[in-house]
Amino acid sequence: MRVGIHTDGKPVLSYVGEEEKHVICLHNQLIGGGFHWEKTIRTLHDGKIESFSDSATPTITLVETLPIERYLESVVSSEMNPEAPGEFLKAHAIVARSWLLGKIMRCHGIDADNGRIRKRDIIVDWTDTEAHDRFDVCSSDHCQRFEGIGDTDSRIKEIVKETEGMFLADKTGMPADARFSKCCGGHTELFSTCWQNTDYQYLTAHEDPYCDLSQMDPDKRNAFLRTILKDYDVETADYMDWKRTVMKKDVSRHLREKFGIDIGDVTDVGIQKRGPSRRIITIRINGSKGSIVVGKELMVRRLFSDSHLHSSAFKIEQTPEAFILRGKGWGHGVGMCQIGAANMARLGHTCRDILRFYYPNTSIRNINDDNR
Ligand SMILES: [Zn+2]
Ligand SMILES: [Zn+2]
Fold this sequence. Notes:
Blueprint: E1 2-6, E2 13-15, E3 24-31, E4 39-45, E5 48-51, E6 60-65, H1 68-79, H2 86-104, E7 117-118, E8 122-124, E9 137-138, H3 154-162, E10 166-169, E11 180-181, H4 191-194, H5 218-228, H6 231-234, E12 242-247, H7 248-259, E13 266-274, E14 280-287, E15 290-295, H8 297-303, E16 314-318, E17 322-327, E18 336-337, H9 338-346, H10 351-358, E19 363-366, H11 367-371
Parallel strand pairs: 1-9, 8-15, 11-18
Antiparallel strand pairs: 1-6, 2-3, 3-4, 5-6, 7-8, 10-19, 12-17, 13-14, 14-15, 16-17
Bound molecules: zinc ion (2 copies).
């Protein structure tokens, strides 16, 4: 499989140790591009590296070819802390493999534009992985985090090995489009709130009692979060209940700079439609020179932030100058909630319990059995 790797400019590469071992250090991999945790890190790679240029994805300058299981070791290590509970990491490996197989096999061939609207007064849009055609997946949160092999410790390797070939199959036996996000905020969300106007039997909206850790002793909670999240995620982990004050003039500016829309000075907003987790799907923005409706979930998050808000599940209070947002969750909330799933494992639930809870109407199958 081929992974497109984001860098912050011209890639800086060097061999690690002896050249014939083929471990290459990339000195400037870009992670979290456009999100609040954006930074450049050093990563190690042992796949075949080629240079790449494509104006559609300007920060991708390298493509690495490597085996799927090796890629998954990196994804699980890059998404989560290797000290996280084992049953959770196992579930994560199966989820990541299902999503990847679904993507490589292109078994979710829904109309890529089903639901997109671009009119003078309505923008309903999203980003999805259809964007890649010269490699299978990219290295950022847009697909699944891939930060090379440097962090893949032996425990993660063992866990991925234990799940080798296992994936979640839908009712027809095809790999499920197993989405996941950092924290649903107490209720999972439907696919159609964030992407095309389509829903899947296994991406249901339901309450999630496991990600709210507010009843835990704060020291214990922080210690637990430190065992499941990456360091840079712990730094920004106000995921359950958060508050942001956003100036109206900044919303006017985001509309101009990110969406190419000028409605003058933003005066007020009105929420049009929310999904079952209370994530905003569409919102009307009124300005001194007109108004516009913006959706879906990710566009709303971009509208109210210089990068992206944690989620679109927020309530709005207005003052003459600003919007005060009180929100829940981190990410789109569709499919597995990483913090909830990790907490299920802490409470003694198994990998299968976790997968059954976040992806009902699926079964676990093995790609190796299917090929025999
Ligand atoms: Zn991608
Ligand atoms: Zn949750």
